């Protein structure tokens, strides 16, 4: 493991920072140290806390070594500090919609290289790779370009990036581009809570109070909106992955909710259609989140997918 890993806590959770592709990335793991590693990659502007504790616990209870980490520019991982002439987010949206180039500090390919570096730095060997939203995009790239590092792929509420796919609901897209009324902690929590309520699973997501508590925990750990903007530029600068997806040969599961207002179900269907022999799992009532009533089912489905690949390799 990394040089500065902590000793195992009473809860069995271990954490530290590891050098990966020139970045110090914060990581956390649980479960048996000799279990097959499941590496979780979170989405845009979201810390490793975005992977719910019950979901992680369910995977570790199934015998897997579960690792979650902060992507570059977010959480406790290194932040981008170099200056440069980069496209503004508003202009980047327009340019990407017409297939025009976007200048970004880094791309999803760079973030995929971070993930490969983390796999190497933690000496994980081939992993079961699970990515949500932007994390799904990163996972797709790692699976395509580094099949020796990946035992299986699970892409959740993500996309192929094809320009022909339908956009999310306008009010949701406008909300994603909005800012808190002030830099006051309460205002930030209120703003982010409302945003998550808009994109979350209707009827089965966290309550407003639960979202506020989770978001508050994240704020206490780290708050870095500039990193979120740069990660968004990385997405917009990276374009479509249609051709890349067709190169994936590892067993792949695509999970998408039929109530996702941010990344419509068509994106999941197209992702699954592009990956050879991928299996699509459409989850009724799921939006752009990992709602509590689905934690057990999602973990069980991913564990079953991973176990099937283990049997195939035996």
In short:
Keywords: Hydrolase. The chain has 314 residues and is α/β, with parallel strands linked by helices.
Mean pLDDT: 93
Secondary-structure element order, as H and E?
Answer: EEEHEHHEHEHHHHHEHEH
Count of individual helical segments: 11
What fraction, in percent, of the residue positions are helical? 40-55%
CATH topology: Rossmann fold
Tally of separate domains = 1
Beta-strand content? 15-25%
Low-confidence stretches: 6-11
* End-to-end distance: 26 Å
Radius of gyration: 18 Å
CATH superfamily: Alpha/Beta hydrolase fold, catalytic domain
Main sheet summary: 8 strands, mixed
Name of the CATH class: Alpha Beta
Query: How many strand segments?
Result: 8
CATH architecture: 3-Layer(aba) Sandwich
Structural class: alpha/beta
Which sequence of strands runs across the widest sheet?
Answer: 1-2-4-3-5-6-7-8
Q: Note the overall shape.
A: globular
